[in-house]
């Protein structure tokens, strides 16, 4: 997966670097590099994924069952 940036007419190096960083974030490259920075045991990865799936399923249920907030009456 190669990300190539061609300079546009009159574009500075800092602008090209910003575009490159945005493309890397869009592709998920920076997140992947940070995740692979340290070794993670497969059991830890499964545990983390299981916790993430539980919070994903529980969170929408708690938000929809909560009654709407009323402003304080003075």
Would you kindly provide a written description of the structure presented here, covering whatever features stand out?
The chain has helices at residues 13-27, 29-35, 42-65. By secondary structure, the protein is mainly alpha-helical. The radius of gyration is 22 Å and the shape is flat. The chain has a domain at 24-63.
State which percent range the strand residues make up.
under 5%
- Average pLDDT figure: 85
Helix content: 55-70%
Q: Regions with pLDDT < 50 over 5+ consecutive residues?
A: none
- Beta strands, count: 0
What structural class should be given to the helix and strand makeup?
A: mainly alpha
| Helical stretch tally | 3
Globally, the shape reads flat
What's the main sheet like?
none
Report the C-alpha radius of gyration, rounded. Answer: 22 Å
Order of helices and strands: HHH
First-residue to last-residue Cα separation: 61 Å
Helices and strands in order, then pairings?
Elements: H1 13-27, H2 29-35, H3 42-65
List keywords for this structure.
3 helices; 0% strand
What can be said about this structure in brief?
This protein is mainly α and 74 residues long.
